[in-house]
Amino acid sequence: MSTTYRPAGLAARTDSLTSSAIRDLLALTARDDVISLAGGLPATDLIPIDRIAAAAEAALRRPDAVQYCETSGHRTLRSVVAARESLTRGGMPVPVESVIVTHGSQQALTLLAQALIDPGAVVVVDEPAYTGALQVFSIAEACIESIPITDTGMDTDELERRLAAGLRPAVVHTVANFHNPRGVTMSEQRRRHLAALADRYGFWVIEDDPYGEICFDTTESDIGVPPLPIACHSDRVIRLSSASKILAPTLRVGWFVAPPSICAAVELLKQGADLCGSSMTQLMAAEMLADTAWLDAHLVVLRREYACRATALTNALGAEFGDRLTVSRPEGGMFAWATFRDGTDTGELLDAALDHGVAFVPGTAFASDAQYRHSLRLSFAGSTPAVLAEAVRRLGAAHTASTRVR
Amino acid sequence: MSTTYRPAGLAARTDSLTSSAIRDLLALTARDDVISLAGGLPATDLIPIDRIAAAAEAALRRPDAVQYCETSGHRTLRSVVAARESLTRGGMPVPVESVIVTHGSQQALTLLAQALIDPGAVVVVDEPAYTGALQVFSIAEACIESIPITDTGMDTDELERRLAAGLRPAVVHTVANFHNPRGVTMSEQRRRHLAALADRYGFWVIEDDPYGEICFDTTESDIGVPPLPIACHSDRVIRLSSASKILAPTLRVGWFVAPPSICAAVELLKQGADLCGSSMTQLMAAEMLADTAWLDAHLVVLRREYACRATALTNALGAEFGDRLTVSRPEGGMFAWATFRDGTDTGELLDAALDHGVAFVPGTAFASDAQYRHSLRLSFAGSTPAVLAEAVRRLGAAHTASTRVR
């Protein structure tokens, strides 16, 4: 018997899937002879591997550490996160039930997109934006609109003009602290403004905060400490964070804090997505986050080292390129953002840079259209000052070589 | 300025989200005074926690164990899985690139559903079916069709009749080894038949195999050993498995083996979903799965204990209920399936059972419509023979009490 039947292939949605430019670049730059300032990886040498091993040993003394756990996360970790989040919000109560633990905060973004975004719904993102968010919203078939970032965060005046002109987002996503890739922090005034707009126009704000605790200048003044979260000013804010940057990515522990209706919907979606997270890594994260004496000391080291690396990178860039390159002065986080003023196309520069043994992310990776051709993101987190100096030397040589070709 | 704008709520798809009956039941039965035969949890007392602790210690000697890893999974684990899968397939080569590691095999199901199923596409499932699969296909907005299971697995003759009559599935999902909840294993003849139908009609088969290695009778004969996988007979088969049942759920390590186009699409979807899994738990799983001397001895213990518990449960049920209850004779896996012949409604019986301190899953949880009202699934894995005997005594008392009411 013969049949005329078109074989099943892939779902239509797979046609529009595109790989994250950054994940692809990571594969390219895994070569030993390339100094990569491309990735968003925390410094491997600063990950507290001995403390992690001790936490694993402690967790595995409990039989419940090896079983399935609740879909919403291990209660022990949810309690610790709720208590820390309450401190971050200046003492505002945060119920344990409002915390959902996810498989890294990237899973939080994905599940929130599924819970909040119908195909075709409008999502507002920063311009430039976190690439992982662009990917999630694109898979969710959202209509993505951008609002520019300035030195004090998303331009909420521009957002208000767009709202007044009829823009009706379901969600506004922003990285308010030590923005990826721009490095800037949203001012308190703009936080209040964004929260008021959320209340007035009824959209959800996703306040994505992986870097808030990596603030550089906290010893002598409060200059580097971010203002209170946007979530302090409106109930329509969902706050995301993660243990990946301050403890270790391998825990795959992220979380969000949200109103009950959203937590309930995400819990059901997560049941289908993966049943639950790892009891073991959640208990490990809980132990380390609750060990405040150790954690505070660890964060002091992390902040000091990252601050030192940021200065080393930006000074080296200044010395190498002078006025030809505008470089951000990071006050926290993991990234510097730089823009060539001499017309250099950073996509073209990347080819020469890889030949010279250095990698970065071209600015176009952070836009939904073809912007930021003259910009680049450089991660200072993963390299020592000496290596950063060598990386900038190579970048200078690559720039000279590519200018000569042109 | 006032506005007339309907506030953003939840996405439309959240209207049809329903909680897994089993997950809800797990919450109900977490009471200390209830013996739960409801869950699909492996026996906590048989999880090799000391070996897991040693594997954690070993993994954390490698700096790459604490960082992000490749989206498709840590290469070390993918190699070990490919080698084991090749053995399972009787020596057929399995390239490392065809293995994708996921956050438990539930995530594999979800990502495969996203990659293969357009809304409205037909998906064929077993009848009765694994509830987690029903949930995933329902979230994917598939049109779910069922084919009955008999003592030799999915009735492929019935499937062939439906195909000849015009049924055009994109995917056929089946648990061929020690079926959940029915306990049966698909015969070799039906495996070949299903594979041939997949080739002729061009659908994908998802061969979901979490229990294949928990076969009871392997010492004196090959009676209990499942036939070669369906994947040996067609290229249109995607095989799923997991470390959750043989090592520990807490690792959250599952995997699938599939053709390159499917691996590529799922990798992109997984980038968005969670970036990657945990390097640490993947390296732990790799070490334990590659330690064949230890693993073989561990599996011998697991099979012997589970076989002993299965016999204890089915014997006790026979003694308690006699002809009023038909009980499966499990040859592997974690579940017995039983059907009352006296008209007992197991949904109603559950209320009485909980009052008497015992829990099971009513048969209706495994159907997309309201079938199996007289059936129930009982997990023997998590309880010792003495506890199973007490559980059956309580079930008998509950049955008597509920019959009296009726």
From TrEMBL, chains A, B:
Q: What SUPFAM superfamilies is this protein classified in?
A: PLP-dependent transferases (SSF53383)
Q: Which residues form the Aminotransferase class I/classII large domain?
A: 33-395
What GO molecular-function term can you cite, just one?
transaminase activity
Matches recorded under InterPro entries: Aminotransferase_I/II_large, Class-I_PLP-dep_aminotransf, PyrdxlP-dep_Trfase, PyrdxlP-dep_Trfase_major, PyrdxlP-dep_Trfase_small
Q: Name one Pfam family in it.
A: Aminotran_1_2
User: Is the keyword Flavoprotein in the record?
Assistant: no
Residue ranges spanning the membrane: these are: none
Q: State the needed cofactors, names only.
A: pyridoxal 5'-phosphate
Q: Which UniProt keywords apply?
A: Aminotransferase, Pyridoxal phosphate, Transferase
Any idea what this protein is called? PLP-dependent aminotransferase family protein
